[in-house]
Inorganic triphosphatase
Amino acid sequence: MQPEIELKLDLTPEAAEMFAQWPFLPTESQTAALHATYFDTPDHQLGKRGMSLRIRRSGRRRVQTVKADGHEGAGLFARDEWEMPVRGATPVLDDRTPVAALLGEAVGQVDRMFTVDVQRRTWMVTQDGATIELVLDRGAVLAAGREQAICEIELELKAGDPAALFALARRIDADIALRPGVLSKAERGYRLTAALPTAFRAEPVALDPAMTVGQAFLRIAASCLRQYRLNEALLLDHYTPEALHQARVAIRRMRSALKLFSTVLQALDVTRFQNELRWLAATLGEARDLDVLAARIGDGRIEGPRAAAQGRALQWLASARVRMLLLDLVEWLALGAGLGAKADRLAAPFAATRLRKLRKRISKGGKPMARLSDEARHKVRKEAKRLRYGAEFFTGLFDNKKKRRRRRKIFLGRLESMQDVLGTLNDLVTTPVTLARHGLPADIGTGRAEKADLLTAAAQAHDEFVDARRFWT
């Protein structure tokens, strides 16, 4: 078993054709046609555990590989790997891999799931004193009678500093647009075996009480970045309102994580990324506001400004500024995010303190809800979002007792109910502004719920939230 560190980068077929002719590539390269068959149990027990099992054939040679996901989730993959030659097309599941021990009796159910066929071209590159294997893969994954194209670059560090991977990626992106990849070939195959998604919601973050603050932050931030990239890829292929919404959710989650962990991060890093993420959220916000307005009101006069806003959002998503923000974030996380000694303490007490302070601010700031100004209510709403994201981030740190799980369910349910009412109140305030900004008449925003009734509902939801017991104690 040996560690594998690689940076995965997605590109379009047109960009891949340009890259194959990139003048800075070494003159010598190797080419190979690779056919890989992936195996699992019918209920995907390996995939659900973040593992993959494949047999790859190149010419007459067959190699079996088992990979364990390192949970990096955002461009840089660091995984455990078990590899050995095999003679046939059937996996060898003995004690040289962890598969048999992991599956137990279910090991007998292992069967073919999907295949991946790629044309691979490989170069050995030197960058800043590091040796990097540069691979261009073009092909397709086939599963359940469906097919999806694969077009990606992998930069695998053979020797030297991981920072060289990013220096090389930036050199390439100066001429050919690249984006951090977040899906392995195995994940692409598993996704083809199910209904294709229209958006990606946040995935649970795998934390445990033995983790340090730094380890928790890196995993949480990588999860946020992964959610963003999955939705961004959908948007760049075909715009859907839900994918845009979930991309903005991912940005808010990342900003919340930076705020929650600000005491263990470098202030300059936090400021830099907060500013860029705030800009990106605002850039996508115009299209999101009009999507929501169109769904709520359904007036045809909205469609022209809405289509224009969607077009502007897609233009920015394709920009070099966004690509560099993503690559900067991946590099920052991959190189440790500048975490110091303060991040070495256990995560659970740190998380409990952060959640307690947020809860206290919302409890105090929301009283009396009915007499708060629009600005003050909006501040409570933002704090509630941050608390909800934090509670979801830290679930694994406080999931060891049944009563805690029951309290968490009640706590999050009441927090979400309060958010919903505050969100509707916020719509009352922002709708006239949105309409005026796009030259639309104010009368198409009529038919909204009465503000007095909503204020009463918000006050009640706030009281019920305050009464909910904390799940982190």
Observations:
- The chain has three domains: 4-196, 198-345, 346-473.
